[in-house]
Amino acid sequence: MQIIKPKEFFRNLPSKQCPECGTHINEQVESYLMECDHCLSKRDE
Ligand SMILES: [Zn+2]
Q: A Pfam family for this UniProt protein (predicted)?
């Protein structure tokens, strides 16, 4: 049986990516924001 260490588990999580332009989103961004700052600012207009 393989034991997964918590550190390895979190490292294997897929990084969040903007569906509009594919830019990797900083994980510090609030989780409900699905798009990067660039696309969000475009959407406001
Ligand atoms: Zn984007």
A: YhfH
Looking at residue 17, the DSSP 8-state letter turns out to be: B
Q: What is the pLDDT of residues 1-20, one digit of tens each?
A: 777 777 766 566 667 888 88
Each domain of the chain, given as residue ranges in start order, spans 14-44
Residue 1 CA, ligand 1 centroid: distance in Å? 40
The reported pTM is: 0.47
Tell me, in angstroms, the distance from the centre of ligand 1 to residue 2's CA. Answer: 37
Hey, what long-range contacts does 11-16 have (CB within 8 A, 24 or more apart)? Answer: none
